[in-house]
Amino acid sequence: MHPIERLRYLARSSGADQRVLVGETASALRGLGIDHAGLVVACRRIVERHPTSGPLWWLCAHMLTATEPYAVARTLSNEIDNDLTPEVLIDHLPSDATVCVMGWPDLVGEALLRRGDLRVLAVDADGEGAAFVRRLDRADVAAEIIEPGVSAAAVLAADLVVVEALAAGAGELLAARSSRAAASVAYCSEVPVWAVVGVGRCLPDAGFASLVQRVADVRVPWLAEAEVVPLGLCSHVVLPTGLFDVAAAELRPDCPLAQELLRPAPRT
Description:
The structure is a single chain. The chain is built from 11 helices and 9 strands. By secondary structure, the chain is of the alpha/beta class. The protein has 2 domains: 3-81, Up-down Bundle (Four Helix Bundle (Hemerythrin (Met), subunit A)), CATH 1.20.120; 85-245, Translation initiation factor eif-2b, domain 2 (Rossmann fold, 3-Layer(aba) Sandwich). Strands 1, 2, 3, 4, 5, 6, 7, 8 and 9 form a 9-stranded mixed sheet that branches. β2 (119-123), α8 and β3 (143-146) form a beta-alpha-beta unit. α3 (36-49) packs antiparallel against α4 (54-64). The longest helix has 15 residues, at 18-32. The radius of gyration is 18 Å and the shape is globular. The mean pLDDT is 90.
């Protein structure tokens, strides 16, 4: 497939594992070998098509601020492939616990599949919970699909709520729909809430704000593709370096600020 067609396919795709999406995008951009101006346009269009993807913003920001962007792309693809966040979860998730998650989280899902001893309550956010439960069932992991309207009951039945960040800022997460409601119920009921922030998901404040602005249509907020969750609702933060109490966790940007990504791509 020609790199241009590959990029078009990636721009249209949805629901892919973020690590796969970053790897494929990095490979496609390397295949283009375009100049900086062309790279700016390509990166803008990619992040506009995937406004909830922190890792794609991270990839593009690094490439646009690097002197050797295509070498950097290869390094970043390897870095996100080797994300240790699932390993941290595997080591720290309590044994035989009931865990409530939203949709089909990439990193959390990998950890739950590999652990195998946990009961999973998957809230059917964005229609992904059912597919996730089927995948867990095939791996002999006990799992139930939960309709979003009764997610509060699932939270109260869980030992732990785990919210995976699509992107993160200094004090907020962008997460799948139903995450804020679940975290709020858990916070009020003293159920632990773990915020999972993998490689490439913590952005500079302006970058995170640009994602939120594109995703959260304030005129019709209930139709937004994702929602903002205050970090204050969480008890712990899971990073590639370990599990931390939320008061001790420090979310630092994983990438520089690329001003070019704050402006929309020109229309042709």
